[in-house]
Amino acid sequence: MSDPPRRRWLDRVDGTPSLLASGARLVGDIETPGALVIGGEVRGDGHVRGDLSISAGAHWEGEVRARNAVIAGQISGRIWVSNKLEIAATAVIRGRVTARQIAMARGATIDGDITVTSSQPVVEFDEKRTVADAGSGQP
Predict the structure, then answer these.
(1) Alpha-carbon gap, residue 90 to 106, rounded angstroms
(2) For an engineered disulfide with 73, which of 44, 54, 103, 107 has Cβ 3.0 to 4.6 Å away?
(3) How far does CA 68 lie from the centroid of its chain?
(4) How far is CA 81 from its chain centroid?
């Protein structure tokens, strides 16, 4: 018997993710050994050793590194993703983007350089999730 595919972001996350709720604000650098879900505002650099989710309406100002990421909010600064980066239609990224694989919804805004570290092209797609679901890991 095979395991069903893990389509939802939270189904793929190992352990319990750290959460910065909507309306919350963090000033300073952040480092987490696992997943991080941002619904509020971060000003500082980050090293997320797991998966990162930045919800629609959330904002990160600074440089961030993560294993995988789903961005539906805003980033002002550089983002490095060692594996897969998904950019939702609501996303606005102002800075350099580097990832092994990038999937970007039509309507997303990137004001900066994009570097794909594998030989795969950037995949464009039409967003099928609602604004409430974007960045929350829902299919």
Answers:
(1) 9
(2) 54
(3) 7
(4) 9
pLDDT tens, residue by residue, 100-118: 999 999 999 999 999 999 9
Calculate Rg over the CA atoms of the chain.
14
The pLDDT, as a whole number, for residue 135 is 46
pLDDT of residue 1: 45
Q: What is the pTM of this model?
A: 0.83
Q: Characterize 109-125 residue by residue with b for buried, 16 or more Cβ atoms within 10 angstroms of its Cβ, and e for exposed.
A: ebeeeeebeeeeeeeee
Phi, psi of 66, rounded to the nearest 5 degrees: -155, 160
Q: How far apart are CA 48 and CA 125, in angstroms?
A: 26
Instruction: Give me 68's structure tokens.
Output: 């995988």
Instruction: Report the distance separating Cα 34 and Cα 17, nearest Å.
Output: 6
* Strand boundaries in 11-135, DSSP class E: 18-20, 25-27, 30-32, 36-38, 41-43, 46-54, 59-61, 64-71, 74-76, 79-87, 92-94, 97-105, 109-111, 114-116, 123-125
